Amino acid sequence: MLNKILISVFVLIVLSLPIYSTTVTYDERCSYFIEESNLLISKGKLEEAEEILRTALKSCKDNPDININLGTIYIMQENLPKAREYLFKALESKVNISGKEYVLFYNLGLYYYKTSNLNEAINFYKKSIEANPNFGNSYFNLALIYFKTGDNQKAYSNFKTAEEIFTKQQNYPYLQKTQELLNKISIYLDTPAAKVQRTAKELPSQYTLLLENASKDFKQGKVKEAVDTMIYLIQENPDYPDAYYRLGVVYVALEEYPKAFELFEKTVEKDPSFYKAYINLGIICGKQNLDDKALYYLNKALEYDPKNPKAYYNIGIIYQKQGDYLKTQEFFEKALNCAYDAKDTDFASVITKSIASLYSTRQERLAGQ
Q: 1-96 adopts what CATH topology?
């Protein structure tokens, strides 16, 4: 399973395009070969990339980037002896590879992982992290090894770092994999997420049913019965975040915002990944003109659900209130794209109307200038 999860990732080393003149320098010629191979590798055309790099070796044999890219290709093709040959040529090169060491170390980590030498794999992933602390894949693969060897605490720590990096970089495929593995591993640890999962497993089924019935009671206008049931559930299960959250939603509907705010805070205290509670905290702060706090909570929601349309939409509302129409439009459009991705046509319709209204407002302001 871990071999399926472990995907060889290449970092396209961005170099400036060669400047063509009557004389092409050594560095320009080598840069051209490297860029062409990077492009082909990114498209999965490994044989064509290999052919270009082998041609490059004739005139750029001292350039370590050529060997790094060849090693990358052979790792992808599972040709491990060849991968080792070219990666070690780059490692032993006397030419300075400053700024690209992390790519080399990362690929050597992959090589040693695939040859079951986990200690050396760990060693090179750590070197890759030292060379580039913002390369999330090194943390991710290092966490996989710790997970495989039963060191759940180190695995969790490295997965969390990878999650932060992938969130900032909007690397959604790897972010999703990382969060899935975090959920899987956290059950074995004494973390807030683990506590939530244990609570959910240990809850008697009638408590969940009571909570659902309480929500139905509220929708039917039976406010006191709903509130009483939710308070009872909180008293019986103090670590049950859903009960705090549902009661907070009730108080929002009743416009009792201080009570709702306190309950949503309690929700994220019990489960720091409860993104819906962060959205409601942001909305309440927005209503109180606490814009900085509102943006903090809404961005916090996006850390745990990076494609949540309501978080983006409410960030847009904050900027609209501040008169920053460019940012408003930016976040409304992000919200709309996420709503379409989630097939939430009703909310997409709301956002579309808001964008139309925003456009009309901007036109009126321009006309009045």
A: 1.25.40
